[in-house]
Every structure is written in C-alpha cells, then in structure tokens.
C-alpha cells in the first residue's frame, strides 16, 4: 500500500529533524541552513550578536551599534536609512545596524529582550515607557557623556522630558505637540469665523454648536476623553492631576470636575461631539478626513496624512484654553542599554539622530515629525511646507507646553484614570463621581514616593 | 492491551515518548517552574534577573493574597464565567450541526468545507475589525438585520451588558469551522455499519443521531468540551482588539489582566501569581470533567 | 419522489445559508482591501466599493521583501507541522495503547500544560532559549512545537477508539509496537492527522508573538511580522491590512484543500470491526 512508503519517509524525516534540532542546540549555526545563497545579512545576524556582547575588541577599528526603533516603520524607513548613511560618512569607524519594528507589541518585545539581557545597544521608547524603564534602572545614565556637547541646539523642554531624578537618560528623537485642526469649508458653511489664538472654551463651543446644526451626520468638535487629553485640559482650567511635587493625586478637585463636565457635556448634552456608538469604530482622523467634523484636537503628526488625503480646505490653531492655555507635549526618546558594550559609539549615533543639523534637515524634508532642535534655518524650512498655512501655531503652542505627570506605575495610573473617564463619557457616572472614584482607586493602588 | 507483554513498560514506551518528553521538560516544565518561582517575587519583568543583587525580591504569598483579596480578580472571573456560559453550549451545538451537515456525501460538499473553515484561517486582527463594524449599533449589519424584524438592536460593544455577548458572537463565527472540522473527523471514523444496523431496526434520523452518532462521537465531544473550557478560560485576542477590556472594564478577563500586569504595568511576579490561580481553577474543572467522563463517554464499541 | 430530493434540498439550502452568513465578514474584508484610502471612511458603510483600487495590494508588496517572507513562513510552518505531528503521534500511541507505570499521571501532566496562560511562561521560555543559544534561529523558533498537548490529546482520544482486538490480531502475527504503530495506527489515524496538520500549519503560519521575539534578522521574518508593520504608531492602513491578511490566507487554504483528500482515506483502510 502506498501508505507504508509515505509513513516510513515521514518517520525518517522526523528522525532527521530531531537530529537537526539536537545538533542545533550546540550553537546557533543552523540559521542559514534554510535557503542556499542567502545574503550575508542572514549570517552576520548571529555573528554580530556574539561580536557585540563578546566585546568589540576582535575587530579593533570598526564598532557596531545595534539600534532598534518603531517610529520609522511604514513609510519612513528610507529616511532613517539616509540618516544612517550620513552618520557613517561622518564616523567611518562606527557601523549602525538598524532594526525597525511595528509599534504594536514593540514594547512586549523590548521588555522580553531587556529582561533576558539581549537588548540592543540603543533603542527608541515612547514617553510612557521611558519613565518606567528609567526608574527601574535598565537605562544608561547619559549625563557623563554630555561633556563637550552643546545642548543649546536641542529644544529645552524636549531634553528635560528625558531626565529623571536629575539624571539624563535619553535624548529626544523628535517631538510633536497637539493643536486644533479645523475644516474651513464647514466653518464657511455655518457662517462662523475661523479660530484665533485668543479663543477660549466658550468660543469653541459656540462654533461647534453652529456647525453641528448643519446636519445630523456632521459634528462640531472631537477631543478624545482620555487621560492624555484630560491631564492637559484640566490645566487649561487652572487645575491639575497631581500636586506640584508629585506626592499626591489631586484628581477630584472642583476645577477638574468642571473640566470633565465640560468635556462630557459636549457628548451627552449638546452632542457636538459624537458618542462612541455614533463613531461606530471609526477613528477620529477618519471622521475629520471625511469632511464631517468641524474641529479636531490631535497631534501634528497628522500633517502628512491629512495633506495627502484631504480635499477640503483646512488649517490649524493653538488649542483654546479657559483660564490658561495648555498644550500637550509628546516625544519619543532614544536611550542606551545600561549593559551595552559600545555605549560611547551608541551615544554618537543618538546624538546625531537627535541633535545634528543633517538629521534635522532630513526629517523636515521628509515631513517625518519635528526635530527637537533650535536650528532656525531648518525650522524656517518646516514653516514653509503647507498646508496647513498657520504652521506658526505649532511653535506658538510650545509656549504653553505641559508635560504629563509620570510616575513609576505609569501604565496602571493612566489605565485607572482612563477607565473612570470612560464611565463619565458614556454617561454611566457623573463627572464628580467618576473623578472621586478615580482618586480613591489611585490612592489605593499607586505608590508615590 | 496488546499482549506484547515483554514489550510493555517503560522500556518500550520510552522510544515513543522521548521527543515529547524532551520538549515537555525543556520548553514547558522548566519555564513553568521559573514562572512559579517568580510568582513569589516582586519581579517587574524588565530588570534582568540577578538574585545576588536582590533582583527580584521575595515577597512570599503577598501577590496571591492581594489578588484574592482584591475586587478585580473576582470581577474578571465573573466576566470570564459569563463568556464561558454563553459560548460553550452555543459552540458545541453549532459545530456538531455544521459537522453533520458537512458529512453528507453530496456534490460540492468539499467546497462548503473550505468555506466554513475560512473564518478560522483569518487572523483575529482582521476578524476583530470586521466584527467591530458589523456590531456597530448605528451602521452595523447585525442591528440592520434585527431592524428588519422590528427588533431594536442593543449597543453591543458599547454597552457593558452586551459587549460580552458581542464577543461571544464573534468567537462563534471564528471557531465554528475549527470544531466542526474536528467533529467531522470523528463522524468519519464512525463505521457506517452502525447506521445500517440502526436503519434495519427502523430508527429514524433523530433516533439514529441520539443513539448512534452521539454516543460514538462522545470521545471527540469530550475532547472538544475539555479543550473549549481550557481555551475559554484563557480568552484573550478578541478582547484586546475588539473592546480592550471595555466598556469600563466589562470585558476585562483573566488573561487580559495577566497580560497587562506582565507587559504594561511591569508587575511580572503579580501576573505570574494570577496565572497560577487561573491554572488551579482550570485544573479543577478539567479534573471534574475527567472524573465524569466515565458516565457518558464510550470508548470502543 | 419528494423524499429523494428532500435530503439534498435541505442540505444545499442550509449549507448555503450558513456559508453566506459565515462569509459576510469575509466579503467585507475583500471589499475593504479593494478600497482606496479615502473611501475607507465613507458612511454608511460601503459594501461594494465605488471605485476599485488596488492601492492596498500594491502597498503590501512595497513594504517588505514579499517572496522571502512567504518562503520563510512556509518553511517554518511546514517544518513545525511535521515535527509536531510526528512527536505527538508517537506519544499519543504510548498513552493510548501502551501500559507503563505513571502513564495516567503523565498524561494528566500533559493536559495540565495547556492550562497555564502563555503570557506568563513567555519570558522564562525565552530565557531557556537564550541559555541554549537558540535565539534568532529557526531551530529555536520551531523547537517548542515538539511538544504540543493539544495534538497529543486529540490523537490519543482517537487512538483509544481503535479496537484492541484488532491490534491483538497483529500481535499474534508477531508485530512489535513499532510495527503496529506504523502499519496500523498511522493509516487509521489519517483523518485526524490531516485535521491536525491543517491546525498545526495554521497556528505556525499565523503565529506572531513568538517569531517577533525570537527572530531579529529581517531576512528571517515571517508573514505576520511583516504584516504588522503596516500599522503605524498612529494610524492603520485598513485596506493594506486587509489585502495582506487575504494574501496570507491563500497558502493555508491550499494546505486545507490538500489535506481534505485524506479526510476520506481513513474509511478506505479495511474494516475496523473486529
């Protein structure tokens, strides 16, 4: 019967496989066994691993820095490549090995690597994770390497964001902030004058209501009711989520309740902002791009997408405040693994990426986020790329920057607050109750030293 | 047992068991032992383990105590239980029915077999997105359909009471083909002579089903029930993608919490303890099922 | 007369109805993959795109070295399937038809491994791999599938239903366990093997987190890893994502179709009635 032949072959194959596996245990050499003629990239991957951890002494001149990031994924890989080439031209004895991963699960991956001691020399972190990593002591303190580095080229706020407990643990990769986007066509239709930098909450609400009345499917404004918007919005009303020296939570103060009430009323009372059900799984950007949203509060990283895909007239303005203005600061950081053997070389690469004129120029030309630098000529170039016309608002917003409160248990804190904000947003709890419950839970679960 | 008596015992068995045992020990028992030890520590899952530097520190039963003593554990256990109670009966019925249907020797049945299986082949990323829009209260297909019958559809994933049923619906869509395939394998193993005998005795389709099919299928049914229970307790990707534990925690389940504590909150020790409590629960239920199997499972004719 | 047609009629109606219901989401997937970016946000939801655009598909092929990735995935999934099935079949036979001390306890232990959520053994397993120096190798990627409780459980259930009398007859003819296994058990288990092959292949094909952590060499990347790069930090290209997901389904369907032939094979192998 045909079966016997096949089954014997199957068993033989299994034996072979088993042998291969056992052989593989004594060294990672099996990696290139799968396809003949694989490019040298496949082999050198494992070789480099050993080279780095075993010390760069065997190849005396050239040092290799392994760098992992997520912000280049998608369309921006070629620009990162440009930066690397420029850097290697300037530093002929340093080679940079770039690995770009998707954002989802980047942190699961990175955590696994750090925990097992196989982390890359340098890598990128978003702000929330940066603070946890820094406080848990897995990052290299960069302060000693700052000797001879003129930090005035870097945006002060961006640089300070990456120092914890007085030590500098990271450099800003880029930075962004959040502004008010608005749909000029809808404003014209509703006969409302465009936003100005003097606008307050009341002005925004008025405009939103007029635009909302244009149609059932048209909404006035969208500003997500979640932690990242909330921590900033409370400051526009003179409140804050924590006290000045970060030793206490001050979540349920009257001003904060007022702020939340204002945000929630937009959804539940005047419905100038759609409910979650009305959004039906659609993203806020999608809503704006479809021309059905008058105003949107979101980050400047939307510029490339909006420029490419929006057919109506749009522009930006500094976000309106109430008793004060407050705008959101957002940045991805570059850090060095505490146990890296090539820390000095890695620092050169990070410094280049973060603070050099060449890298900044590449970013601006590509429209790939904003470099956190003070080179006026580069920034002027940035201002010239339109839409939006009012790019000046990006820099004006910098005057009102507020950084988020970060604690060691950052993710837990943002999740707790987020959950209670959601309850208020969906009308399940009153803003006062939601914030009171949030305060209680925070005091219970988050340790502040 | 085959009377190859001198070939019984470990000597004979070891050849067959060796590959699996190696894998079991290396890739399962050792990591599990590691995780178990970690459940008694406060490891953050980030700092490399260096016992001499005090990383991590032992905290004894603290993790277990704070899990069992807190509200969160019981709340997510209840959410998980809701899922299980809704999902398991429905999936069994749906899969067996589908398998029965696909067992017919009609022309084109293999096409249907592929079609039914396609949801299983799609990743949850795609599947979850699809269901999010199908279950949309305002624009989704499900509520559209209900409207045709004059029923006002609920808020599904946006309503704390209907979010879990929404997830159950998505899960059934995705898993039905999978278990149908397994039941189909079982159905095909049933010798047709049993059916002939029953027909000769004058049994109609329903009686044949009850007295021939179901009993002979029972080892597979047992298998599917055990597997389903074990997997349901570990419900995860759908929740992460469709509702992210919302609305307001209504779909937070055990493994979702474990993942968060392990990879978001940097509390790996705590997450470990959580897992072992979950393990104990699943083990208990499986053990009960194994004990009860004698009552309804028929091996050998 | 009617009775002759009632059966097939019922079958085709039911089967088609269920197939349609089951495939509506899939149809939406295809529809989304053919939309241009702008049309993705139209409301109410467009079932049939106004203009068909292959932008999504084009972008999928742009983003990563497609051929290489598919080859990697095929290699990994294929090898995983063979390894998993071979090891599981052997162990299942031991559990089902052999007698040795501690057999049932060992089997219970095997089952128990399914009850620990992977999330928590993930990092410890990775550490083991690191000690064995198998990080960033295909060996390390595939090795854990040598033990798969699900496959062992399923095969054991099936093997237990094979009548002992039949096996005893073979023993009378002087068969050893190995002969019984290869010449009797495996052919009889063909439907189950085929079923498990599909499941194992699909699992390995769609696996994301383990390859993500194990493989850092871009030349070794598998399909789900590559697809995930289509979602950025801020936005997801749904049309590209759906296009990529559809493309990745094709090989699994092919495997399924190939395996289908064997679903019937078990019935052809002699009568089991002893």
From TrEMBL, chain C:
<dbReference type="InterPro" id="IPR035906">
    <property type="entry name" value="MetI-like_sf"/>
</dbReference>
<feature type="transmembrane region" description="Helical">
    <location>
        <begin position="105"/>
        <end position="128"/>
    </location>
</feature>
<feature type="transmembrane region" description="Helical">
    <location>
        <begin position="180"/>
        <end position="202"/>
    </location>
</feature>
<keyword id="KW-0472">Membrane</keyword>
<feature type="transmembrane region" description="Helical">
    <location>
        <begin position="238"/>
        <end position="259"/>
    </location>
</feature>
<feature type="transmembrane region" description="Helical">
    <location>
        <begin position="70"/>
        <end position="93"/>
    </location>
</feature>
<keyword id="KW-0812">Transmembrane</keyword>
<feature type="domain" description="ABC transmembrane type-1">
    <location>
        <begin position="70"/>
        <end position="259"/>
    </location>
</feature>
<dbReference type="InterPro" id="IPR000515">
    <property type="entry name" value="MetI-like"/>
</dbReference>
<feature type="transmembrane region" description="Helical">
    <location>
        <begin position="134"/>
        <end position="153"/>
    </location>
</feature>
<comment type="similarity">
    <text>Belongs to the binding-protein-dependent transport system permease family.</text>
</comment>
<keyword id="KW-1133">Transmembrane helix</keyword>
<keyword id="KW-1003">Cell membrane</keyword>
<feature type="transmembrane region" description="Helical">
    <location>
        <begin position="9"/>
        <end position="30"/>
    </location>
</feature>
<dbReference type="Pfam" id="PF00528">
    <property type="entry name" value="BPD_transp_1"/>
</dbReference>
<protein>
    <submittedName>
        <fullName>Sugar uptake ABC transporter, permease protein</fullName>
    </submittedName>
</protein>
<keyword id="KW-0813">Transport</keyword>
